[in-house]
Design brief:
Distance between the termini: 16 Å
Shape: globular
Oligomer: single chain
Radius of gyration: 31 Å
Helix content: 25-40%
Low-confidence stretches: 1-29, 148-154, 156-163, 170-179, 532-546
Structural class: alpha/beta
Length: 658
């Protein structure tokens, strides 16, 4: 009987966070917080564990000892934090039959509880998502409240939490009479925010749509997870649809709260609010303003203008004057568009230091603190104007979003595709937000883990088609049953099929490349048996079961994709399949990475892998595929290791068994 050490530890080789962190072929990786602390404060670790009291001493005055402190607290908060840290035992099963252009697309739609999905995506998408937009349940008392334990089937959870009755029909859920009206909602959101922060790029942004019920608490929750210094904006979206409904005070707005992962890395948006008139000077390539400014903060002073100082007129003379600002001490004589003899002017100035620097720089343009080319010139009135070249990242984004469409209009659009969905966000609203926060990037990942009908996905496609971009979407939606009896996740896929088809035809007519497809996945049970390593006794039958640790209903396709997932390979990675000794092998990264679900591994198969061109650098195989042939496995490890440099720290892991 052959049992590898990894199984005696309760997990396979691919479950090792350390292995994943050093795997050069894996995209991203989740940092080990204890290891990070060890680098900063090695004295605070004892036997590999963090000594909290010693860490407090090392931090000194930076530690808040008082029991009373400002912050957001609620029942269940600690459990929500633990929940975010709990490892998922699920996997993402491919749904090729529900997908469009599987082999070429970069878009993803994942069906399942978003908390578990986010956990599974941490390794493959860590630090790689540019923008997260979510429109979560608003906690109205009628919202679907997500489960916190994937091990419990969704159907039983809904009944236990009274979200459906015995007949399977939806009911009100998070009522104020439960006593934990806000707490239940905060517990649901906290863990999801914690994980979503890890997915964002250093300059990434999260946008959260919300209404008056939870706006104050979600703002504080985001401050806690992302840091209050990383707050960007609290947009007000004016939604003027359905104003004829009766209420004491009719609300026609919602909020969209924006936080960055690191505000210092966030670049200024370059887009101008579409409500600004085209005649506005905001559309000019240059900004011109007089620097004459008198007042207590700008006491008058003399400026000596040298020969050659530029003017905006060809020739002329401005005689001395003392009756208006700026005072002209010497006559200003212009010829050929420049000052022909020295002259002096007297006034209060708004940018005196910059003007003096311009003169000292030989009348050549200077660069201001924002990186803009800045110069000065005289006008016919004797005033001195400052001209700045408008930078490419200079925009005009305002915090009130008007004329972005209404939910009523959005519902009408979906109805044209025979999709019944209440209160979808307008596509243009999300597309405008994408333009703000994606900027000039041609490629990026946009995630929406409360995907609903798929508005974010369609907005990404419309932005790509109109701006010739290649932004990809990552949508997650639980299979919640709608009022019409349909699965919401199936509606999401259907909408993306329709939107992709419509926009693909439009792009084709313009002869432009366009990705209108998507890969579909479903959250499901692992293809590998989960063994409790903390059990009191190691039963012989348990060990025997892990000689073959694969579930009986596991498919080769499911096994391969689970290995890719746990190895940190993104789900949008280009894959190819080759046949080696009669067995399919999946390749990634142009053949540098290989994985196979071969159940009976032979030397012929190993030789075939070694002969692949280009040379495979990382291989994952089933441990059970070697059976009792330990010598074959050991020799194979040596053969793959020999192809790596002796200085490569991953040399001995070139072949990993699962």
């Amino acid at each position: 009987m052959c049992v590898t050490l990894s199984y005696l530890k309760g997990e396979s080789d691919i479950m090792s966070d350390h292995d994943l962190a050093i795997n050069k072929l894996a995209a991203g990786g989740v940092p080990n917080r204890a290891q990070e602390l060890a680098q900063l404060f090695p004295e605070a670790l004892t036997d590999g564990k963090v000594d909290v009291e010693k860490l407090k001493l090392l931090l000194g005055e930076a530690v808040e000892e008082s029991q009373e402190r400002y912050g957001l607290s609620w029942p269940g908060k600690r459990n929500a934090i633990r929940l975010a840290q709990k490892q998922s035992t699920a996997t993402l099963a491919p749904m090729a039959d529900e997908s469009v252009d599987w082999d070429t697309t970069k878009n993803l739609i994942i069906e399942g509880d978003n908390l578990e999905v986010l956990k599974l995506l941490q390794k493959s998408y860590y630090g790689q998502v540019k923008l997260i937009y979510i429109d979560p349940p608003y906690n109205t008392g009628k919202d679907f409240v997500y489960e916190d334990d994937f091990s419990e089937p969704t159907e039983s959870y809904l009944k236990r939490s009274r979200q459906v009755d015995d007949g399977g029909f939806a009911t009100s859920t998070n009522r104020e009479t439960s006593g934990r009206f806000h707490s239940n909602w905060l517990n649901m959101m906290h863990a999801r925010f914690m994980i979503s922060r890890r997915l964002l790029t250093e300059d990434g942004v999260i946008l959260v749509s919300i209404n008056d019920v939870e706006v104050a608490r979600v703002r504080m929750l985001l401050e806690e997870v992302f840091g209050e210094d990383n707050f960007l904006a609290q947009f007000v979206w004016v939604n003027e649809g359905n104003v004829d409904q009766q209420s004491k005070i009719k609300g026609i707005h919602e909020y969209i709260i924006a936080f960055s992962r690191s505000k210092s890395n966030f670049n200024n948006p370059s887009i101008i609010d579409p409500n600004i008139e085209e005649s506005s000077k905001l559309f000019n390539s240059k900004i011109e303003n007089s620097i004459t400014k008198n007042g207590p903060a700008n006491p008058p002073s003399r400026i000596d203008l040298p020969v050659g100082f530029p003017a905006d007129f060809e020739s002329g003379v401005i005689p001395p004057r003392m009756d208006k600002w700026p005072h002209v001490i010497d006559s200003i004589e212009i010829g050929g568009g420049t000052l022909t003899k020295p002259a002096s002017v007297f006034s209060g100035w708004s940018s005196k230091r910059q003007l003096e620097l311009f003169i000292a720089n030989g009348l050549n343009p200077i660069v201001d603190s924002s990186g803009r080319q800045t110069s000065f010139h005289l006008t016919r009135t004797g005033a001195i104007y400052m001209t700045k070249e408008r930078s490419g990242d200079q925009g005009h984004v305002v915090s009130v979003l008007r004329n972005m469409g209404t939910t009523k209009q959005a519902s009408g659009q979906l109805a044209s595709w025979d999709i019944d969905f209440s209160y979808p966000k307008p596509v243009y609203l999300i597309q405008y937000l994408l333009e703000i926060f994606i900027g000039d990037l041609k490629e990026a990942v946009v995630c929406d883990f409360f995907a609903g009908s798929g508005t974010t996905g369609e907005a990404v496609l419309r932005l790509n088609e109109s701006k010739s971009k290649s932004i990809s979407y990552l949508l997650v939606q639980i299979p919640e049953v709608t009022e019409s009896g349909q699965s919401l996740s199936s509606l999401t896929r259907r909408r993306m099929v329709e939107a992709g088809r419509e926009l693909s035809l439009k792009a084709k007519s313009s002869k432009r490349n366009f990705d209108g497809g998507f890969r579909a996945f479903r959250l499901g049970e692992s293809n590998f048996k989960n063994w409790d390593a903390d059990a009191d006794a190691l039963l012989a039958e348990d060990l025997e079961a892990f000689v073959n640790n694969i579930n009986t209903n596991a498919s080769d396709e499911g096994i391969v994709h689970e290995i890719l997932l746990k190895a940190g390979i993104r789900q949008d990675t280009d894959l190819s399949t080759v046949n080696v000794a009669g067995v399919d092998v999946t390749l990634a990264f142009d053949g540098l990475f290989a994985v196979s679900a071969n159940r009976t591994i032979s030397q012929e198969f190993i030789d075939g892998l070694l002969a692949l061109e280009p040379h495979v650098q990382q291989v994952y195989l089933l441990d059970s595929g070697f059976g009792d042939n330990d010598s074959l496995k050991v020799n194979a490890r040596h053969q793959f290791a020999a192809r790596r440099s002796d200085s490569d720290p991953d040399k001995d892991d070139a072949l990993r068994t699962v």
